[in-house]
């Protein structure tokens, strides 16, 4: 979808992306770069369910990957450490890609009101007197 947006939206603007960004980091960075190269200012709000962040399941459970349809039966005590390590690594990689591209990155849990996070971001932005730096070709 990011590649398609970069192709369709020709007029420079502010792009606000709300996503879990659970995609391969190489393709994600490449597609975000298309937006910044076109001169768009990009702001990323990386959203996660609180259960994804905390992984505080206490009983063996069947998990469904909604994107692939694959079912996984997991023992949470066994899977927790590896899962949290991989998730933290991915979030760090996304943050690094955003930093390299000059993209503002914010992580949110779905139990936080989105409007509050957006308001806080815009308020801080106005107080800083943010000047938009556009990429020149």
In short:
It contains five helices and five strands. With 137 residues, the chain is an alpha/beta fold.
Summarize the helix and strand pattern as letters. Answer: HEHEHEEHEH
> Beta-strand percentage?
15-25%
**Which blocks of ≥5 consecutive residues have pLDDT under 50?**
none
How many β-strands, per DSSP? 5
Describe the sheet with the most strands.
3 strands, parallel
Broad structural category = alpha/beta
Task: Please report the number of helical segments.
Answer: 5
Helix share, percent: 40-55%
Main sheet: which strands, in order across? 1-2-5
How far apart lie the N and C ends?
A: 23 Å
Global morphology: globular
Average of pLDDT: 88
Using the CA coordinates, give the radius of gyration.
17 Å
Describe this structure in words.
The chain is an alpha/beta fold and 137 residues long. It is 48% helix and 20% strand. It contains five helices and five strands; from the N terminus they run H-E-H-E-H-E-E-H-E-H. The strands form two sheets. It has a three-stranded parallel beta sheet. Strands 3-4 form a two-stranded antiparallel ribbon. Helix 1 runs parallel beside helix 2 and helix 2 runs parallel beside helix 4. The chain is globular.
């Amino acid at each position: 979808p990011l590649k398609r947006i970069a192709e369709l939206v020709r007029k420079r603007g502010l792009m606000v992306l709300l996503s879990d960004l659970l995609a391969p980091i190489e393709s994600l960075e490449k597609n975000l770069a298309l937006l910044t190269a076109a001169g768009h200012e990009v702001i990323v709000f990386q959203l996660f369910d609180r259960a994804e962040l905390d992984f505080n399941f206490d009983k063996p459970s069947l998990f469904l990957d909604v994107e692939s349809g694959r079912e996984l039966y997991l023992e949470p005590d066994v899977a927790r450490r590896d899962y949290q390590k991989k998730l933290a690594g991915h979030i760090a990689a996304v943050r690094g890609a955003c930093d390299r591209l000059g993209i503002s990155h914010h992580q949110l849990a779905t139990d936080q009101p989105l409007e509050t996070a957006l308001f806080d971001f815009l308020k801080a932005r106005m107080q800083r007197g943010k000047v938009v730096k556009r990429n020149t070709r």
